[in-house]
Amino acid sequence: MNFVDAGVSGGIWGLRNGYCLMVGGDDEPVTRLEPVFTDLAPDDGYAHVGPAGSGHFVKMVHNGIEYGLMQAYAEGFEVMERSEFDLDLREIAGIWRYGSVVRSWLLELLHDALEKEGNKLERLRGYVEDSGEGRWTIAEAIAEDVPVPVITAALFARFASRQDESFAAKVTAALRNEFGGHAVQLAGSK
Is 66 in the active site? Predict the structure, then answer.
């Protein structure tokens, strides 16, 4: 009996464009199954990355990196959205897709979303789930003593998105008021 695992990336577009496959397993069974993997994957989108379990491990880290990339785009576009300038975020995402050092498929997807949903994404709620891979990547980083501040911050930003009101922020506001007389905002005011 042999175990082979395949971490798969391609999202909902994988059926049309092919899936990136990160395969783990012993050489013999992977070689036997390789024609299946190369048929599913686009050119240069398949690799035998190591022993059994390594395919899913590599995919887990892939998703942790994805957390950080999405958060960086989210923060940058929020800075632009809140600025004094009346910026067309869809247009900016559009031009950054060509020749920019930050171009990526995620940026293409953001442009598509802004095109469908509008420049301010008015219909969407800023509530972001996580599917676990970021947590697992952070847990593995802790086990290996590897600092991953960007991935960790991105996961915590997702947690923050799920709060209508943060009790921790209330505690911080209360403490600042108590020790330094700093102003607080009362519930219901802005």
Answer: yes
